[in-house]
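Shift notes (night). Ran Timeless protein while the centrifuge was going.
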Amino acid sequence: MDWLLATPQLYSAFSSLGCLEGDTYVVNPNALAILEEINYKLTYEDQTLRTFRRAIGFGQNVRSDLIPLLENAKDDA
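Came back to this:
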């Protein structure tokens, strides 16, 4: 399962959503487009292996990137 964690596309997609600066999570102004790209990858991934979903789970990207994004996003979109 190490190959799942080594996918640079996964890290670049989630790391470009925003970053933690001190105690504040700064949301990337382009986060909506990045989320749409992630949604596209989830929609069109291999339906048997589900490698992108597994990589998200093993990389704990929901906890480390998506939850802080949702907590700190100010825009309704």
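The first strand starts at residue 18 and ends at 21. The two ends are 35 Å apart (CA to CA).
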